[in-house]
Every structure is written in structure tokens, then in C-alpha cells.
Amino acid sequence: MARVLVAEELAEAGLDLLREAGHDVDVRIGLSPQELRGAMAGAQALVVRSATQVDAALLEAADGLVVVGRAGVGLDNVDVNAATARGVLVCNAPASNVVSAAEMTIALMLSLARNIPQAHVALSEGRWERGKWGGMEINRKTVGILGLGRVGRLVAERLAPFDVALVAFDPYVTEQSARAAGVDMVPFETLLDVSDIITLHLPRTPDTAGLLGADNLARCRPHALIVNTARGGILDEAAAAAALDAGRLGGVALDVYETEPMTESPLFGRPDVVATPHLGASTAEAQDRAGAQIAEQVNLALAGDPVPYAVNS
Ligand code: MLT
Questions:
Q1: Is any ligand 1 atom within 6 A of the Cβ of residue 94?
Q2: What is the pLDDT of residues 112-157, one digit of tens each?
Q3: What are the CB-based long-range contacts (under 8 Å, 24+) for 257-260?
Q4: Relative to the CA of 286, which of 74, 93, 102, 167 has its CA 20 to 30 Å away?
Q5: Which of 183, 242, 177 has the alpha carbon at shortest distance from 216?
Q6: 257 touches 232 (CB < 8 A)
């Protein structure tokens, strides 16, 4: 039996699997970094989502730590190198929430194109602003997909019936594989030049941080809409607000922020922005899958068995 410290919300299905394997499951949500370090003593497994920074200091706080399980996809909050150096296995649940993330992208895209949240708020407050919230059709527009991985491809599939032209930039994807998904690969600059809508599906890395900053935003079409459900900081929020102010961008929809939780982004409170608090994976289906998948991986790691979704073994 091992002690499994669960530091963020995990679906009941996942908690049950850990308990059924005989582990002592300690759910400690909302701890400060210092409190979490204190709670790590004696833990053999740590399970997190995206809000917990699993850094070297946290890893050091648990001598017998065997595995860090990330109940979701992104690993930018886990210092995988520090974990590897300490012999700690890191695993994630890479396919658990991709459908939810793709659906969230489409929802935000349409909400932004048709100003649905803004009109909803106005009407809820008693204002019939029919003349104010004219929108844009998606039909026959060019959508640029930055990052044609799992989520980018699901977004492309879901956009195809809208009769759009799909272009993508992704240095790791071949033209042939993109064409099979109905997408034309183009250079990064071309994507910025031609897209009416740009949607981000890249991980946050040193190469992608600030990718859509002032210079690259200046290349975008003045009516272009940008949707970011990937990771905060790939789109520079201050630069995007400045571009909107200058009339060099049509609108922004975002679910992810440079730092989270975020309550003071320069993009908040604008009529040309739709913003949600990192809800991409927040569906019952995605959370059940993420919880169950990560519990299975953690159970395998604790049993000393091969872990299919290990990222550093
Ligand atoms: C992910 O990377 O899996 C998503 O952003 C969802 C999450 O962090 O929970």
C-alpha cells in the first residue's frame, strides 16, 4: 500500500481505482505551495492537474516519491527534468480531454464571431441591443491552425462542415498527413497573413512562449479573430489588447492565461474579447477519463509495472 497525495480535483472514478488498488488516498485540495511541500512527506505518488507547480522544491519534499501523475495533457507545470534527475516517473493522460478541448475551441470561436456572451449579458441586464452585436460568418473563411496535433486535428474535423479553408503551421507534421486531415500546411508567416481566424493548439515551450506578440500580431489581418484554448502566454495578452485598441485585430477568445488563476488580464472587460477560466477540459466526460486514466498509470507505476503514458522512462 502506498500513500497517494491528490492535490487537485480528481474524478471519483479515478479515486476509486486508486483505493481499489489498496492505496491510501489523501485528497488535499487548495493547499499553498508551502503547505503542499509539508503534505508531501511520506507520499509515494502525487496526482495534479494544471494548477499545481511540481517544481524541484516540491519534488525534494518527498523522499520516497515514485510517480507524479498529471490528470490531463499539458506538462508545463511539471519540471520533468527535475523529476527524472530524482528517479521520479512522470505520466499524463494524453488523450483524455482532447475532444472537450476541441469542442471548447469551436464554442469560443462561434461565441466570438457572433458576440453571444456580450449580447447575453446585455439582455440579462435588460438591454435589447440588437443593432450592436452584428457578427461574422465562419462560412468560406480561412482558419489558421497553429499546431496540428491531437486537438488541432479534432478542431479541423469539426470545422470542415462549415465550409472553411483550413491552413496549419506545425513543424512536426508532414504535408501528406495534414492533407489527409483536409488541411494545407503553410509557413507560419503565411498563416498569419491569410487567416480570418487563428486558433492555437501548441504546447507552451520556450519556443512558443510569446509567439503571438506585438510583431506577429501586426501581421494578422485587421479583422482576424484569435482563439487560444492551448496555453497562456503563447498569445501575449498585453500585445493583443494593444492590437485590439489600435484596430489591428478583430477579437480574441481565450480560456488560458499567462498566469492562472487570472482575474486581471488586460483583455478582460472588453467588448471584443470572450474569456473563460480554463474550462477546456472541464466536462464530466473528460474528467472521468482523465481521472481513470491517470489512476491506472499511477497504479502501474506503484506496482513497478510498465507505464504506457510515462513521459520520462
Ligand atoms: C490539459 O492540459 O490537460 C488541460 O489544460 C486541462 C487541465 O489542465 O486540467
A1: no
A2: 999 999 999 999 999 999 999 999 999 999 999 999 999 999 999 9
A3: 257/232, 257/233, 258/232, 258/233, 259/232, 260/50, 260/51, 260/232
A4: 167
A5: 242
A6: yes
Checking 35-42 for CB contacts under 8 A at 24+ apart, the result is 36/7, 36/61, 37/61, 39/5, 39/7, 40/5, 40/65, 42/3
pLDDT tens figures, 279-299 = 999 999 999 999 999 999 999
Distances (CA, A) of 157 to 109, 111, 259, 296: 14, 19, 30, 30
Cα–ligand 1 centroid distance for 298 (angstroms): 18
CB 164 within 8 A of CB 143: yes
Reference 135, options 121, 120, 119, 159; nearest CA is: 119
pLDDT over threshold 90, residue 80: yes
Q: Which residue shows C-alpha cell 478583430?
A: 250
Architecture of the 98-275 domain: 3-Layer(aba) Sandwich (3.40)
**Best substitution site from 73, 202, 260 to test ligand 1's pocket, by max atoms within 8 Å of Cβ?**
73
Say what the pTM is. Answer: 0.94
**Residue ranges per structural domain of the chain:** 3-96+284-303, 98-275
Find out whether the beta carbon of 73 lies less than 6 Å from any atom of ligand 1.
yes
The 10s digit of each residue's pLDDT in 30-41 is: 999 999 999 999
* Residue 151 CB less than 6 A away from ligand 1: no
What angle do helix axes 150-159 and 98-114 make, rounded to 10 degrees?
Answer: 50
**Cell numbers at 24, concatenated:** 491510501
**Which CATH code for domain 3-96+284-303?**
3.40.50.720
Give the residue among 188, 187, 181 at the shortest CA–CA distance from 154: 181
